[in-house]
């Protein structure tokens, strides 16, 4: 372990960040947070040494050992740092949990890859939000997983506690070095925060720095120490290759900016980071408005000058497909639902989209909706015998799904992370994905649904649904 001791000495001697003066000294809890951050770095080194010396491998039990938010209470517009420690995971998904009239679900924020890792990610929720860290590893016959959740409480009245005002004399000061938080000091005046931020900028001339006080940026500097306080408002050109398409037809979104350091794309309830100039291919299955925002700052919050533009792609016969696409939404007369789940269909060559053949049968007196769910894009090829009536088909997946073979009288409803951010799926009757799917189903069909898991990959499935006319 002499190597570890040497590295720890180097960490201590190389710690160049200067803390505030005695007048704004960190509280005991803040000092403890800094100690925890150092311990987290030690944990990373220990994992690396263990791997190099033949220690425990990624074949061990997957475990999310910690998942925290610091701080866990913020004002609207402020950021918090989510931190976690994970053992033996191939990948982790950071998700936002939500509830609606249809039940519970989650949407992806960002994916992380690597085993035995400690990591962190800064977020700026506009309202109180529960984040879930879901980590997994592929094993024989499926996946092993573990998860934890943490809630960040956002006070929209501009205070972290009942005694602060929107324009306080003191507030919370955050500093970020190269995008990572290096300090959090509560009850700091703006002048104290600004002085400390500039001091750290001078001591780290080859790093980018950004500081906020009371939820707004007070100073930022690039890697050469040049202040970026007086920044130009960026310009943005944004257009789509077509503004009216058929369901699933490809559209290219293209954009160009000046004076922008970062951009993001929003559609439905989704938001993703994009380059400041570029293009993206999308395949909308329903009419969708795409919005790009860009900012002339490099921080985690949208504190610099910003600009945004939107384009709408109209999907012909959006919202209902099946046969000629003339079906209308059925009345709420179904007696439940039959649900099929698969991770992917059978693929041919390099095709991303797989195929699953669905053989439908029905009994007199039944009146069930058919729900088809998958993670990967799937073409569901449904065979409906004469006399079998299906009120509605619901397609759900992380990627867009499509269905063929249905009579024109069947109403089809589609949801995916790619299109509207709302989806559930599971290919097995266990795990977090199944529990989320079950909660969603109970919101629509309270204890009146059957689930038929088709496994990780499937080519065909038989399902009893609908009723005989």
**Radius of gyration in whole Å, from Cα?**
26 Å
CATH superfamily of the largest domain: SoxY domain
Number of helical regions: 4
How many structural domains in the coordinates? Answer: 3
Instruction: For the largest sheet, list the strands in their spatial order.
Output: 2-8-7-4-5
CATH topology (level 3) name of the largest domain:
Immunoglobulin-like
Low-pLDDT runs of 5+ residues are: 1-19, 21-26, 49-58, 159-166, 224-230, 318-327
Whole-Å distance between the termini? Answer: 76 Å
Shape: globular
Structure characterization notes:
- With 469 residues, this protein is mostly beta strands.
- The protein folds into three domains: 2-221, SoxY domain (Immunoglobulin-like, Sandwich); 235-315, Immunoglobulin-like (Sandwich); 337-468, no CATH class.
- Helices cover 14% and strands 45% of the residues.
Secondary-structure blueprint:
Layout: H1 2-13, H2 28-52, E1 63-70, E2 73-75, E3 80-87, E4 91-100, E5 103-113, E6 118-123, E7 129-139, E8 142-155, E9 170-177, E10 180-189, H3 190-203, E11 209-213, E12 216-221, E13 235-240, E14 244-245, E15 251-258, E16 262-267, E17 270-274, E18 278-282, E19 288-295, E20 306-315, E21 337-342, E22 344-345, E23 354-361, E24 369-374, E25 378-383, E26 388-389, E27 392-397, E28 402-404, E29 411-416, H4 431-444, E30 449-453, E31 457-458, E32 460-464, E33 467-468
Based on the model shown, name its key terms.
single chain; 469 residues; mainly beta; Immunoglobulin-like; 3 domains; 5-stranded mixed sheet; 14% helix; disordered N terminus
């Amino acid at each position: 372990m002499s190597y570890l001791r040497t590295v720890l000495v180097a960490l201590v001697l190389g710690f160049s960040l200067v803390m505030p003066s005695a007048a704004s000294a960190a509280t005991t809890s803040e000092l403890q947070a800094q100690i925890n951050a150092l311990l987290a770095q030690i944990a990373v080194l220990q994992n690396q040494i263990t791997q190099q010396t033949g220690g425990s491998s990624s074949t061990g039990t997957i475990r999310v050992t910690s998942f925290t938010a610091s701080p866990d209470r913020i004002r609207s517009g402020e950021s918090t740092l989510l931190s976690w420690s994970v053992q033996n995971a191939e990948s982790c998904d950071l998700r936002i949990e939500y509830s609606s009239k249809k039940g519970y679900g989650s949407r992806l924020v960002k994916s992380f890859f690597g085993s035995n890792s400690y990591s962190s990610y800064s977020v700026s929720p506009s309202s109180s939000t529960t984040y879930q860290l879901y980590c997994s590893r592929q094993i024989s016959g499926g996946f092993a997983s573990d998860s934890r959740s943490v809630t960040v409480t956002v006070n929209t009245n501009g205070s972290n506690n009942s005694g602060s005002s929107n324009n306080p004399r003191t507030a919370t000061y955050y500093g970020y070095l190269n995008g990572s938080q290096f300090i959090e000091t509560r009850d700091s005046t703006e002048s104290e925060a600004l002085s400390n931020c500039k001091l750290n900028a001078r001591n780290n001339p080859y790093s980018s720095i950004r500081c906020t006080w009371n939820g707004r940026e007070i100073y930022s500097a690039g890697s050469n120490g040049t202040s970026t306080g007086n920044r130009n408002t960026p310009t943005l050109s944004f257009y789509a290759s077509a503004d009216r398409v058929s369901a699933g037809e490809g559209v290219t979104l293209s954009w160009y900016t000046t004076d922008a350091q970062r951009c993001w794309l929003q559609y439905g309830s989704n938001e993703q980071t994009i380059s400041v100039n570029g293009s993206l291919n999308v395949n909308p299955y329903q009419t969708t408005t795409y919005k790009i925002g860009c900012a002339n700052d490099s921080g985690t919050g949208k504190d610099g000058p910003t600009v945004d533009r939107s384009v709408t792609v109209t999907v012909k016969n959006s919202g209902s497909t099946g046969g000629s696409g003339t079906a209308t939404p059925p009345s709420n007369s179904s007696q439940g639902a039959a649900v099929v789940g698969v991770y992917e269909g059978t693929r041919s060559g390099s095709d991303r989209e797989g195929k699953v053949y669905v053989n439908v049968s029905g009994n007199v007196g039944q009146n069930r909706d058919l729900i088809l769910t998958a993670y990967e894009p799937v073409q569901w090829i449904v065979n409906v015998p004469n006399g079998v009536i299906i009120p509605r088909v619901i397609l759900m997946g992380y990627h867009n799904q499509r269905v063929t073979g249905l009579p024109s009288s069947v109403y089809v409803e589609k949801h995916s992370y790619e299109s509207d951010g709302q989806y559930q799926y599971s290919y097995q009757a266990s795990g977090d994905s199944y529990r989320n799917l079950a909660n969603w189903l109970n919101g629509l069909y309270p204890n009146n649904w059957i689930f038929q898991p088709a496994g990780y990959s499937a080519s065909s499935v038989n399902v009893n649904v609908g009723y005989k006319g």
